[in-house]
Amino acid sequence: MRVTSSLLLASLLLLMLPSIEMKKPGKGRGLRGARHKLRRDRVRGVGRHSRSGPSKIAAPDCSEFTESRDIYVDCQERRLTSIPTSKTWSKPPKHLLLTRNRIKVLREGAFFGYESLISLDLQQNQISLVEDGAFEGLIHLKTLLLQHNRLTTLSEETLIPMPNLSYLRLYDNPWNCLCQMDSLIRTLQVPSNRNLGNYARCAEPLRLKGMKLKQVDPEILCKETDPTDVSQGDETEPIFPLEPVPIRTKPDAITSCHTYLFPEIRMDCSLTEVPAGIPEDVVHIDLSYNSINHLKPRDFLGARSLRTLNISNNNMEHMDTGSLSGLLHLLALDLSNNKLHSVQYGVLEDLYFLSVLKLGGNPWVCDYSIHYMVYWLRLHPGVKHSGLLCHAPLEHVGESVEEYVHSYNRECPKDRQRSRPDPDETDPELWNTPMEVQGELEEELEPSHLRVPQKYQIIRLS
Questions:
Q1: CA distance linking residue 284 with residue 414, whole number of Å
Q2: pLDDT per residue over 132-146, tens digit each?
Q3: Is residue 67 part of a domain?
């Protein structure tokens, strides 16, 4: 009985051996499994590598569009922390908009695959470091916007890969004008680089604070004392005497506003008055939701290319004559939601091509001072206007200003009626008297458009 059981046990063991051998790693299924696992690990490794490299975020919510046959990629306000990979887009873009993100560092090779770029907008990020080689391959780039970041230093080597760069913005960065900035400042001051680094100013050292990079003497940069260098403890005084920074009486348009170049040049500002130094090539200006309560003469005199101007929601109460002078090509003007009672005579005279005028949300007062606005609109029937309603006096509340002026002209006001003619005009004996001669002299001194037409007699002399 025991022998029989032993034989059965040995038989079972012999039957189990082939299945055990098949499960051992080696040729066949085990090798194929190992290869599959290796391929899977490589794929995962590639994925991990790509996420830690330039393509950390694929940015699927960025938009692609075409304008004037140029391809734009709009990744503005997408909370990006690195540059998306160029393979994300259907076609190689020519313009890459990365404004208002969370990018802190531009690594070497960050723009690999973006060789076709013409413009690159990186403003309003948190960039504090640009590694050498970050812009490698951007040989066609013409415009680079780095303003409103946290850069303290930048070398000339960073710009070398961009031989066609002709427009560079660096302002509103805390530049530390010491020896490491020598090469960049010398490059910016080359006469042919007149559009590189304009308006950028030193933040440190104290003696150079507020001075433009284009005006700093490069010879003194390496003589300045680095405030972070504690090795020179025996130096308690600066090498150069301190000079006061000039006080600006009016905000500067470049440093007070965000300027966007693509697809069109526009400005977005936060101000209490219209800034000085508006660039001539700006097409759109947004001054809405500020605290500008008064437009003064010549405020927009330099903005010759302006097409749209938004001054809505400013609590604005007054516009001087000449405040819009120079805006010969303006197409749209938004004055809505302010505190305007009327528009002074002559304010709109330069707006030859205006087509849209928004006036709603203002407490327009329907008296004689509002007539200029209505007469101007009658002379420019192509202007589409809205919101011109009476808010005072009480008897005209809710009435359109045009209807008010029409009724005003239909019923001649009593204070303008004349009960009897002036005797000076009807008595011939009073003509050519000294008083009449004095009246003629005063009339000639009046402006030409107020003079009464004169009759002249032509006498031929033989």
A1: 47
A2: 899 999 999 999 999
A3: yes
